[in-house]
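step=predict obj=NADH-ubiquinone oxidoreductase chain 4L n=98
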Amino acid sequence: MTPTTFSIYAAFLISMTGLAFHRTHLLSALICLEGMMLSIYVGLTTWCLQTQSMLFTLSPMTLLTLSACGAGTGLAILVATTRTHGSDSMQNMNLLQC
C-alpha cells in the first residue's frame, strides 16, 4: 500500500469514526461528512491520474459538485434548526415533529 493510498484511507476512516462517535452537534456531523466526501474525491482523482483513463475524468468533478450541493443543503438545515431550536445540539432536535 502506497503512502498516498494509506493517507486517503486514513482520512476516510477518521472522518467515519468522527461521524460515529461525535454526534452531539449537527455542525460536527456535517464536517465529518464533508471530510468523507473529500477523501473519496481525492482517491477518485488519484485513481484517474494513475490509470490515465480519459473515460473517468468527469467523475471526480461530478462527485465534487454533488458534495458541494450536499454541503449547501446541510448548512441550510443547520441554519434552520439553529433558528427554530436555538442551537445545533442533536439532543434538542426531535425529527418526528414538524
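step=describe
The chain has one domain: 3-85.
step=end
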